[in-house]
Amino acid sequence: MTIEITHVRYTGTQKTHESISDYKWVNRASNNTGISTKPAMVTWVDDNSNTAVVGSGTQQVQVGSVHPAGSAAYLRTYADKTWTNNLLALPVF
After folding, report:
1. Least C-beta-crowded within 10 Å: which of 20, 49, 55, 67?
2. Domain-wise residue ranges, the chain
């Protein structure tokens, strides 16, 4: 299943990948929408049968999970073999 992450919510005032607490998304196949917590989305993305993206068409980038030692896992976008900041550019809800 593929979803597009469309909005993010942060805890506190810092806007970092680590401080994102929730993700708003749309399932492209069914047009269903939802909101998921960071831990739930990391688990969902880690399941190889699922794909999360930001953007569409030529502007689409894949979302991957980052699992730093000693810290909670979080999501980032990955384009052209480089971790990118597309999630931080999304609207806040």
Report:
1. 49
2. 2-89
Short-list 90, 32, 93, CA closest to 61? 90
pTM exceeds 0.85 for this model? yes
The burial of 84, by beta-carbon neighbours within 10 Å (0-12 exposed, 13-18 middle, 19 or more buried), is given as middle
- The two structure tokens encoding residue 39: 């831990």
- The radius of gyration of the chain from alpha carbons, rounded to an integer in Å, stands at 12
> Please, how many CA atoms are within 13 Å of residue 28, restricted to the half-sphere of its CB?
15
pLDDT in tens, 13-52: 999 999 999 999 999 999 999 999 999 999 999 999 999 9
Two tokens, residue 51? 């794909």
Report pLDDT digits (tens) over 71-91: 999 999 998 888 889 999 999
